[in-house]
From TrEMBL:
This is 23S rRNA (Guanosine(2251)-2'-O)-methyltransferase RlmB. The keyword Methyltransferase applies. Belongs to the class IV-like SAM-binding methyltransferase superfamily. RNA methyltransferase TrmH family. Residues 43-119 form the RNA 2-O ribose methyltransferase substrate binding domain. NCBIfam families: rRNA_methyl_3. Residues 1-39 are annotated as: Disordered. The gene is rlmB. One of its GO terms (biological process) is RNA processing. It holds the Pfam family SpoU_sub_bind. One of its GO terms (cellular component) is cytosol. It comes from the Bacteria. One of its GO terms (molecular function) is RNA binding. Keywords: Methyltransferase, Transferase. It comes from Microcystis wesenbergii Mw_MB_S_20031200_S109D.
Length: 288
């Protein structure tokens, strides 16, 4: 076994790499989208999402807001502050907002965001270690559905993770759709976008993270694994699961036992269940 700094060892972590299963992934296929098209989607809408973006001082190019919210005490000060920082504030009616959002549930306010400011992986690792003695980072491989990515980010932040890593190619980036689904959690959870995911996995391992891949039915049952210490939870794509190269980069492959007839789980559901088990073990061992 490679003795890594910053990583507690347990009985299940041995030097022998587990055999790689050749069966199908545990993740259900979701409708594919084109990441390039998603990158052009830079519109935020809905009171909670836009309000959170203003509170966290995200860089917004323009805000469209109806009169009833423009001078609402909850929004007025933040709108004025955004205006002072260079955001254009347009007071419009509901019909105009319907046109801008393509009749989405805008709730009277929408904003055009600047491109998401990704964090460098090295900085993410440093921040993660600074925030927790036993940090958890989620690595999402090839998640093309922005709704799935947003749900994973939302769950990761809610459970207490320190960051998310996504690949630059063949995967959704952080767009307004992702931000909408994430429901404000991106203001608190940093995301690193990397050119080479497997190189990033090696960097995480060198920094002391133990990598668990949610890959196949024949992986070790999740609840039997000691998930303490600094870990990276690797989530596979909606249709194909983890690639063979990524599986080889993981220290352990884990599976979520299923009792029903449905053979697989949606990527974001699998991530949520795995993250709950990670933190259940931590809460059990350290209730404080």
């Amino acid at each position: 076994m490679i003795d890594r700094p910053f990583s507690s060892k347990s009985d299940n972590r041995n030097s022998r790499r587990p055999s790689r299963p050749k069966t199908g992934p545990i993740l259900a296929k979701s409708p594919a989208v084109t990441p390039e098209n998603q990158e052009a989607d830079d519109l935020l809408y809905g009171r909670r999402v836009v309000l959170t973006a203003m509170e966290e001082e995200r860089q917004l190019n323009r805000i469209w807001v109806v009169n009833r919210l423009r001078y609402d005490p909850r929004y007025h000060t933040l709108l004025e502050k955004a205006k002072a920082n260079g955001t254009v504030i347009d007071e419009v009616d509901d019909l105009r907002l319907d046109q801008i959002t393509n009749k989405a549930n805008h709730q009277g306010i929408a904003a055009q965001m600047s491109p998401y400011d990704y964090i460098e992986l090295a900085d993410l690792i440093e921040k993660a270690k600074g925030r927790s003695r036993h940090p958890v980072i989620v690595i999402a491989e090839g998640i093309t559905d922005p709704h799935n990515l947003g749900a994973i980010i939302r769950t990761a932040e809610a459970m207490g993770c320190q960051g998310v890593v996504i690949p630059q190619r063949r995967a959704a980036g952080v767009t307004s759709t992702v931000m909408k689904v994430a429901a404000g959690s991106l203001e608190y959870l940093p995301v690193a976008r990397v050119v080479n995911l497997n190189r990033a996995l090696e960097e995480l391992k060198a920094a002391g993270f133990w990598l668990y891949g949610t890959a196949a039915k024949t992986g070790k049952s999740l609840h039997t694994i000691n998930l303490t210490g600094a870990i990276g939870l690797v989530i596979g794509s909606e249709g194909e699961g983890l690639s063979l190269l990524t599986q080889k980069s993981c220290d352990e492959l884990v599976s979520i036992p299923l009792a029903g007839k449905t053979p697989s789980l949606n990527a974001s559901v699998a991530a949520g269940m795995a993250l709950y088990e990670v933190y259940r073990q931590r809460w059990q061992n350290s209730p404080d």
